[in-house]
Records
---
Amino acid sequence: MERFKSKSRRLRDSQTSAEAKLWQALRNRQLARWKFRRQHPIDRYVVDFVTLDGKLIIEVDGVTHSTPSELDRDKRRTEVLEACGFLIVRVSNTDVYENLEGVLELIATSLRFE
């Protein structure tokens, strides 16, 4: 478990600019009442953002997530996280940069159906 905590800390320190922008909109319960965590370990993975109460994970994907091997890796990761009871929402860096309000609406809508 300590290994995951250490990795989480490193990832928080080296977050992408898209993750930083989304985090500014999610932190301190800014999206309704939901408490989000960033770079949080779940099972064998560290997820970008999660609300434990809402059982929702948000993954911010860059261009590296478009190769066949990465898509396969993301599929396996999604299966494991869904088996833990979470809904996974994937958004692109471009979505965060160009349509942050739309991303936040997608997240809010996903939480309403929990």
---
Amino acid sequence: MKPWRLTLTNQLVLGYGLHEHMDCYSTRPASEDELRSFHSSDYLEFLKRVTPENADSFLQQLPRFNIGDDCPIFSGMWDFCSLYAGASLDAASKVLNNQSDIAINWSGGLHHAKKSEASGFCYVNDIVLAILQLLRHHPRVLYIDIDVHHGDGVEQAFYSTDRVMTLSFHKYDKDNYFPGTGSWDDIGGGAGKHYSLNVPLRDGIDDENYIRLFKSIVQPVITSYQPSSIVLQCGADSLGGDRLGCFNLNIAAHGACVAYVKSFGLPLLLVGGGGYTPRNVSRLWCYETSIATGVDVGLELPVKLGSPYRAYFAPDYKLHPSLGRDGRFENKNTKKYLESVRIRIMEQLRYLNGAPSVQMMEIPPELGRLQSELQNGVKEEQKA
């Protein structure tokens, strides 16, 4: 998750000249007021004050905010979080103001962060903040997540509203794979019931099956829900050969999902996410930038990519190395299983009866409270 992934991505984008086909903006830090539109004040105060040097004085707060192995304290943490969140907020603003048909923030996509705690390398949930921004003028937002891990933080934030539909394709193993959520029967609650869609996958899914399943689900979801904008989280840990991933996807297949979502012509926000083999993360996000801009970059690395960056792409020096053909993970997704997952999603869509009507004056500002009330109600019913 270190910024080196972004440095390599930036060098590839510049090397191919893709920056000449889009408007490029310098971001600014998100303000505390902007961050408080989702995150709690005490959690933000903690993030702002804690450093590696004074961490001992916050020992009692570390468990409360889930700070530990997966979410360590590091120098510049507050600046980093506020900058990537500010970038996603600015990207959403470009979409809202019709300055961009597609806006990209590869530094964003940190989908595990919760209202009052960090999770899975994620401290501030820039995706939730950006979606709240979009909801100011867009009646319905569709969130699609193709990270190998379940987009639990975003789903949890919008669990009780029908103004956001979340659709996550991910590896699911409740007891053995982080975060252990995202079963097919995890469908939302309250006004948001049936607006949380999950596609739980098993190890080793390949290009052909993934693309077929993705298209067969996304098309009816968009037709039924009729979103006015889409946020697509492009986590690169779903690629074959990722250090934490368990799929066999190649860069072209991952990019085909982005191209398919783009083909619907809706305002689109692309964000990054996971990905723990930096040379492949950067290849992927550069390729998906080329898809967004409609520029064919070919298969060879750009000629302008000089030292020291070129050395990181040895020995093939290709934009599309073979990532999924080595059979690192056996494909445990049978056609019967994938079809059963698709059918379950279609069954959920039948409950919706078309796109929900929206009272535009109601922007979901108290999502944490709504979710707490729902969960407390469930607990009371279980006791009874």
